[in-house]
Amino acid sequence: MVSITNPSLNEAARPYDRTLIETQQLNLIYGTQQILRNINLVIPRGQTLAIIGESGCGKTMLLKSIVNLIKPTSGRILYDGRDILSLSNLEMTKLRRKFGFVFQNAALFDSMTIGENVAFPWVQQGLDLSRNTEKMVLERLAEVGLPESVIPKRPSQLSGGMRKRVGLARALILEPEVILYDEPTTGLDPIMSDVINELILRTRQKYPVTSIVVTHDMRTAKKVADRIIMLYPFPRLAPDEGQIIYDGPPSGLEYLEDKRVRQFVEGEAGERLMELRRWNDADLTPSHYPQDSLRQI
Amino acid sequence: MRNFLTLESTTHAAQRFSAGAFRGISNWGAVVIEGLTTLGDIALFAYSMLRWLFTTAPRRGTLLPVFYQVGVLSLPVVALTGTFIGMVLAIQSFAQFHTIGLENKLGAVINMSLVRELGPVLAATMLAGRVGSAMAAVIGTMRVTEQIDALMAMGADPVHYLVVPRFLACIFLIPALTIMADFMGIVGGYFYSVIILNIDHAQYLRNSRDYVGGFDFFSGIFKSFFFGAIIAVVSCYRGFNCQAGAEGVGKAATAAFVLSFVLILGIDVVLNILLEAVYAMLWPRGAVLF
After folding, report:
1. pLDDT at residue A114 is higher than 90
2. Is residue B184 a contact partner of residue B79, using CB atoms and an 8 Å limit?
3. Closest CB to B149 among A107, A110, A121
4. Nearest to A99 among B61, B65, B153 (CB)
């Protein structure tokens, strides 16, 4: 793993007082496939961490493991020193109130209006005090730049960008300690992506939150994060290699020699293109087709 | 040489046969294991739901829409089905009973069949299709679009939030809908027998009253509680275990109906044996139709 420790590179460094989230020897096998291997990660309070990596490398799985939406196969996840994997369902439910989760496709409830969606965590915690709830919903929607007129609408009536902003408003309503963003800018146009990036930054300025942003959008990672880690797909790792192949500040990515990180940051296919060609060549060889089907052609 | 070749081909054939037989046994074994695993999973799922049911009451806001969906919106289709079942019973029974001059007993036959068996089972089948498939599709879509993850992330337990209201709606409203199906079946059977087939009105009603007793009604309604529970648990389970994509949701909805239907018929056999034993214990002489 490449780790950048030079303080001069850490331009966005903040005074992190203590560790909030820690994963120790985290392993995750999903079905028959190993996704995560020995992930050791320390996230201090107040930090904005971006997790980057190609599709299928386990970024979202890691994010969901942190709130125990997916149970890791082994290892420990500590939140403020407490092992969350040993908590009862009720304790875990209570702990989840400290987290806000912005899902990749917003995951708004189809059966509810936008107002009901945003108010859901508030109502779920038994804080439904009618006028207060309405005020909270309006405030949160205003924070993410959405007008009052969206409140009676259904999620299907909003654009992708608006849905993501509603998802953020919903995540913010309980003023969580940690906000987890799963691919916040995926599927959005560049302008809307930047709006979301600005909202992430603004949220961080307004609330004392720790943020974890899973993304493969380098623009987002560089703009919002204090620290970036890059996960590499397990099947491509050398037997003894750690799955986190980069851990450092965004500026550190510029100085890296690691080809895999550089390729990802610069968006180059590299040897993947060669693999694709090899597979294509292999698949198109006539001997791979059943002779009967060739005859029919 | 020829003998040698024959021997070799026989050996090959025997090897192929034994390989095929082993593969067959292995496939059956896989099916049995899969079936038992699914049943075990459903039992654990039901246990988790029951634990929530008896510890935390669901919110009114989550109950009412589900009750409306299951109860009110199913009413027309159940009423219509019940009416047609009554009419079909009248047509079929009349053809048989008329030949032996017992058409006046039609009321007893139609109403007995309706309240004991056809009303509950066909209403449950109809509701497994209408309500069960919809439940599996809705929950499956929520699974695929991460809405269930979102519920969990926001501190709501999806079993408590999604399954408990559906279970309550099914166990309370499916018996109510069964009563409706019975009633409409009785009306349909009466209408066809008395108005169309010109069976004597007084005889029809007297025979119905004499032979169809409270226990017959009770047994039909009693069974429908179990049918309701099966529909809710199986459909929600299938939805929760939905595979990704539109195909996954479609498969979950189909599997919910098929498994519910099979289990409804299976539990119907068991409950009929049980109820017959209870009946024989309470009324040892039994009912005499002719």
Report:
1. yes
2. yes
3. A107
4. B153
Closest CA to B122 of B191, B189, B181, B184: B181
Helices B60-67 & B164-190, crossing angle to 10 degrees?
A: 30
Look up the ipTM and state it. 0.81
Residue ranges of E strands in A45-144: 48-52, 74-79, 82-83, 99-102
Q: Encoding tokens for residue A8?
A: 């001069």
CA–CA separation, A182 and B54 (whole Å):
35
B167, B46 contact by CB (below 8 A):
no
Residue A250: phi, psi to the nearest 5?
Answer: -55, -40
Q: How far apart are alpha carbons A178 and A22 in whole angstroms?
A: 13
Do B119 and B178 meet the contact criterion of CB atoms below 8 Å apart?
yes
**If residue A112 lies in a helix (H) or strand (E), which one and from where to where?**
none
> Which long-range contacts link B71-76 to residues 24+ away (Cβ below 8 Å)?
B71/B169, B71/B173, B71/B176, B71/B177, B74/B126, B74/B127, B74/B130, B74/B131, B74/B173, B74/B177, B75/B177, B75/B180
pTM score > 0.90 for this model? no
pLDDT reported for residue B9:
67
Q: Which residues of A touch B149 (CB under 8 A)?
A: 64, 69, 101, 103, 107
Beta pairing class for A19-30 and A244-248: unpaired
DSSP state of A280: H
